[in-house]
Specification:
alpha+beta, Glutaredoxin, Glutathione S-transferase Yfyf (Class Pi), Chain A, domain 2, 2 domains, four-stranded mixed β-sheet, 4 strands, globular, binds glutathione, GST N-terminal domain-containing protein
């Protein structure tokens, strides 16, 4: 199996961390792909051109973070799986909440990558407000024990905050959010986290 990723992508980082956490390095080769590039090695497998993309032995390509995690989870015994099931609704809610914030941050960051005259102040204001709102909810989640298990919600949260820390520094996510900051800082020594730190982006 082959997992296509991009080093700066917070979505594909979740799946890269999962490969390490689930001890699947022998079964899943991880390959970097360029994005928004007509010559990308990814396009013959995934016409959408997004990462993460997981190519199975028969060529079937699973795309989008959650289906990729489902596939990786299926390779290990049930007790080791990362995605929370319906029996853990709070964890499932937190996972969805983190992915929702990731989507918003991705939109905000994309606006900032445009030349200044092409940026939409309305979109930026909306996404900045959304990010504050969700980060405050996640802070409450972290403070009330929602992220105590090392599950997909936890890895997604670490990836999201890592993206903000390294590539979306305009968002002061740590401010007045001590539970999130403590969780993130403590996570850094975990091998799957330390081995997948995204490169620093331009200051924005
Ligand atoms: N909803 C997707 C989002 C994946 C995504 O947006 N990936 C970005 C990198 S962070 C990408 O591949 N972008 C390339 C493009 O938009 O062409 C998921 O859950 O995996």
């Amino acid at each position: 199996m082959k997992l296509f990723h991009a080093p700066g992508s917070p979505y594909s980082r979740i799946t890269r961390m999962a490969v390490i956490e689930l001890d699947l390095q022998d079964r899943v080769a991880v390959e970097e792909a360029t994005l928004r590039d007509p010559a990308s090695v990814l396009l013959p497998f995934n016409p959408v051109g997004r990462v993460p993309s997981l190519v199975l032995a028969d060529g079937t390509t699973i795309t989008e973070t959650t289906p990729v995690l489902m596939m990786l989870d299926a390779l290990v015994p049930p007790e080791r799986r990362l995605l929370p099931g319906a029996d853990r609704p709070r964890a499932l809610a937190a996972y969805g909440r983190v992915l929702g914030m990731m989507d918003g941050i991705a939109v905000w960051n994309r606006e900032l990558r445009r030349p200044e005259h092409e940026r939409s102040p309305g979109v930026i204001a909306l996404e900045a407000l959304r990010a504050v709102r969700v980060a405050d909810a996640l802070e409450r989640d972290a403070a009330t024990g929602v992220f105590t298990q090392r599950d997909a919600a936890w890895f997604a949260l670490v990836s999201l905050l890592g993206y903000c820390e390294r590539r979306h520094t305009i968002f002061a996510w740590r401010l007045a959010r001590p539970a999130l900051a403590a969780l993130f800082d403590a996570a850094q020594s975990r091998p799957s986290v330390a081995q997948t730190v995204p490169p620093a982006g331009p200051a924005r």
